[in-house]
Amino acid sequence: MNIRSLLAGSLLLALGLPQTHAATDASKVRKSLARIVNSTLEPNYKMPWLPGATETGSGTGWIVSGKNKRVVTNAHVVSNARFLTLEKEGDPKKYIATVEHVAHDCDLAVLKLKDESFFTDTLPLELGAIPEIESEVSVYGYPIGGERLSVTRGIVSRIDFRPVLQNGKVVGVAFQGFSGDVAQNVGYMIPTPVVKRFLKDIEDGTYDRYMDLSISTINTLNPALRKALNLPGQDTGLLVTRVMAAGAADGSLKPGDVILSIDKIPVAADGTVELDGDRVQMAEIAERKFKGDTLTFELIRDGKKVEQKLTFNSPWTFDMQSNRFDIAPRYLIHGGLMFQPLSRNLMAAFQFQNPRLDYVFNQYISRELYKENPDVVILSGILPDPINVYAAEFREAILDDVNGVKIKTLDDLASAVAKETEFDVFTFRGSGRPLVLERKAVKDAIQRIQSRYGVTSDRNLSEAHR
Q1: pTM of the entire structure?
Q2: Topology given in CATH for the domain delimited by 2-204
Q3: What is the rounded CA–CA span in Å between residue 57 and residue 239?
């Protein structure tokens, strides 16, 4: 949801407050908000054995109603947190908090207070519904770098997701857009249905992320296409063109299926369904599901009507193209050669100039490259040493195999170099010749290389939280 004329801030709270009660409600709302100060430790992808830079940021949290005492904020406000403090208006004390749950796919987090006296004299806020287009909302929060709570008003100009709120209840969690270090004059709001879904998801103590059908479809508005598919009527049916391997629909749907309904809700020819009185994309129904939930499709398959079910056993597994937070970089160093799995974080850190990497990164999902390479292992860097002086030409190359073993994951690489051999032979995609290291020389160089470059560990193979 876009909101015009919002106060600049890293996180803001939007309320639909009647103007006649704005002053009174504002004083109450102040008892519901907190300023969050986050001391972060950023990951270091160029030297992954070392910690990255420490930084400090701030944002706004609000106390949500419910049986548990908790503070909700944006995930980006508490990303890579090492130490969190919360401050209330009129209270000089700094309260220590920890991140209990974080959801980067919807940019929300829940914080837990070590000292629950923080909640004394506070007023939990309830979640409401969607505001109307062009309606006025009040926005509460701490401006960029500010320490005082500010209030401004904005106009709801567009709703990109669904619901938000009004009449003294939370209408959503708003945050400011940035360009460099400058705040834009447009704010964005996470609507309350997303907040409610997040809070529902964590009720069992774990956040399972959003579910996704992982399919491609086209509408059936074209009369010729409808005739070719032998579709009845004029306004139902969505054609499945692709089903991603390893996705939720793999094995349940297949290309050529025409979806007539989903959970008994008719699917229009343009791919929309009616949900809560609004026309939304069919994917919205899947996104409201949780891990373990099922969906039922009514399909036309091979000219016959069939019913097909699918169960959301897990969210989409392959998130190379997503920004990763709170995760230590994975890597392996062998003979001064540093290998890492390709990821958005890695691309941002190194700014590679290899067109092959750009292609693989951009086409990883659409070309289903993950089927052969759950990890795309690349030679990201070299710690120069006499044993690798001729390796520079292989920098940024994708590792294909080692000693005849196909490398599909970073673990495959670790297993390959663990086997005793006289030489290590690395082959890379697009390279006409291999890179060869003598194993005895590699062993002799381990201490020398680690000492020279301050390498505390030659590997991290897991995605353990930092």
Answers
A1: 0.85
A2: Thrombin, subunit H (2.40.10)
A3: 46
